[in-house]
Amino acid sequence: MTIENRKIDHIRIINEENVSHDHNYWNDIEIMQTSMPEIDFDEIDTSVELLGQKLRLPLVISSMTGGHPETKKINENLARAAAEKGIGMGVGSERAAIANRDLGDTYSVIADYDVPLRIANIGAPQLIKQEKLALTDSEIEYAVELVKAHALAVHFNFVQEMSQPEGDRNSKGIFERLSSVSKKYKVIAKETGAGFSRKDAMNFLTAGVSAIDTGGRSGTSFSAVEYYRSVEKGNLEKEEVAKSLWNWGIPSPFSVIECNVGMPIIASGGVRNGLDVFKGLMLGATASGAASIFLKAALKSHNEVMKTIDTIETELKSAMFLTSSPRIIDIRKTKRVFIGRLNSWMSQA
Prior knowledge:
This protein is of the alpha/beta class. The protein has helices at about 5-15, 70-85, 95-100, 105-110, 135-145, 160-165, 175-180, 200-205, 220-235, 235-245, 250-260, 275-280, 290-300, 300-320, 340-349, and strands spanning about 30, 50, 55, 60, 90, 120-125, 150-155, 185-190, 210-215, 265, 285-290, 335-340.
């Protein structure tokens, strides 16, 4: 199984199958409204600065794809909309392009558009030796330059690796290499569905990481994605492992709270709409990230991506109006109530 084929497998399965965690923890946050807001809707300012880049909305299209010829159009639809709407965007893992430079344009298409925050992407497991050699400094530089990136996401996907037939099983030495890479680039430590803890966040702070993308449990489970891949390939052992890890991880909102250690946070993992974006900002994030809602839109057209962004903006501004929050920073003052399963995490973890 080549990396190229695995990329298109992931897109197909996410689009066709139920690969969500069993509970979306953003539903467990209630917002205290203001019935008489002293605010003009048309004067609401949704702009933020993230890693030195100005965004018109506190929103990032999370790293998703690239590495297969069919993914170029997806990334182009996303990049075109991100540029027009003034939001950030990351590409999927660039490992495929590093291995086969002919696939570079499936990622570099993002650089054809004036996306205000472009994020390159490599995997944490590839920072160290697995069955294959670790990525070299020049290969990492290639990944950054390929998309003319303002920042580099290093994604931590070890839950997926444990569920994957081809998964990497070594993590010794990652902290040292991450620290080295963080000296050269603005690194975003990114989870891919299992969330980060306070201990993780403190380690990233020590390593010199510039931001954290929480990628918590609430949205797509990549163990679920690997479950379907194993079913298709008849790998019974990995099928059972992936099934057992389907709902592994730290809930997205709880991870945002855990990661408040003094660096920018991108709240992601199950973000579906502008209210979820608002809730992430309310808990201390600088911006929110979403993937699956944009993937489904990008598979249709760039206009569908634009419509999705417009809806999120309207929902976000409506929540800001109804809590008398004229600026993004004011959202943090909003009172909130934790209920259900998230409240159990808040009271016990």
